[in-house]
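Tutorial handout. Part one gives the primary structure; part two gives the three-dimensional structure as tokens.
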Amino acid sequence: MAPEPDALDLDLVTASLRADTTDLQAFVEALAIKLEDVLPGRVRVDRRRSGLRGPKVVNRITINAGDRRLELVSDGGALETRGARLSGGIVLKTEMLDIDAWLAAVSEALAAEAGRSEKTRQALERLLID
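Part two.
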């Protein structure tokens, strides 16, 4: 039985987001850039300087996706990912997610947004091609 086109797209998005998790800091930096490109206005990336003169690195990625908020916190090589349910901008429930579940939730949010926005769909296509 062939997979449905939407399911296949979701798998491609998730694979693209997960492309290289061997170097966590590089993964987080690349993910932040991709998400800022695909979801401008819905993604907030907080960067912090590492050391007194070191480069700024991604500390937190927050994605507002309708009734969900997805957050990734990077702290010295450790990642913490969580999802929150929202109602009227108020957090009802927050849960810790493993990275695979978080990436799947991000993929679902991207696919849903791509269905509503031509600009997001085009940005998502660029993400998959690169």
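Part three, for discussion. The longest strand covers residues 56-65. Helices lie at 5-17, 24-38, 99-116, 118-129.
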